[in-house]
Amino acid sequence: QVQLVESGGGLEQTGGSLRLSCVVSGSIFSIKSMGWYRQPPGKPRELVAAITTGGITSHADSVKGRFTISRDNAKNTVYLQMNSLKVEDTAVYYCNAKIGARWDSYWGQGTQVTVSS
Predict the structure, then answer these.
(1) Are 7 and 109 in contact (CB under 8 A)?
(2) The three-state (H, E, C) secondary structure of 83-117, written as one string
(3) Integer Cα distance of 19 and 10 in angstroms
(4) 114 has a pLDDT exceeding 90
(5) Contact, 6 vs 79, CB < 8 A?
(6) 3-state secondary structure string, 38-56?
(7) pLDDT tens-digit profile of 37-70?
(8) Which residue of 6, 39, 98, 105 pairs with 45 in a disulfide if CB–CB is 3.0 to 4.6 A?
């Protein structure tokens, strides 16, 4: 059984920074890709950033230059450094891992990020 546990969310002011972490544990044969999604209030879930095992990253246009995804393969951990936070970054942030030959998708429970003006 695969488990993803996020941490690091909270309340921050505009312009501030937060760092999210996500640890993947369980029956992990091969993690192909890890990423962060977010779901603002009343809106659909959207991809924020992703990173492959080889370190190739992608970031949504809305966060480029402000957010940085990274990972520690030895610790099965992915991070999201969020700088210059904006009110519109307020959302529940979910960690995602794609594992195995079929790239099965697994999700964390979500962590709330609230940015106040």
Answers:
(1) no
(2) CCCCHHHCEEEEEEEEECCCCEEEECCCEEEEEEC
(3) 10
(4) yes
(5) no
(6) EECCCCCCEEEEEEECCCC
(7) 999 999 999 999 999 988 999 999 999 999 999 9
(8) 39
CA distance 60 to 80: 13
Check if the beta carbon of residue 95 is closer than 8 Å to that of residue 113: no
Supply 113's token pair: 């990020």
Band of the pLDDT at 31, cuts 50, 70, 90?
Answer: confident
Asked whether the predicted pLDDT for residue 27 surpasses 70, the reply is no
Backbone angles phi, psi at 53, to 5 degrees: -60, -35
For the chain, the residue count is 117
Cα atoms in the Cβ-side hemisphere of radius 13 Å centred on 41: 7
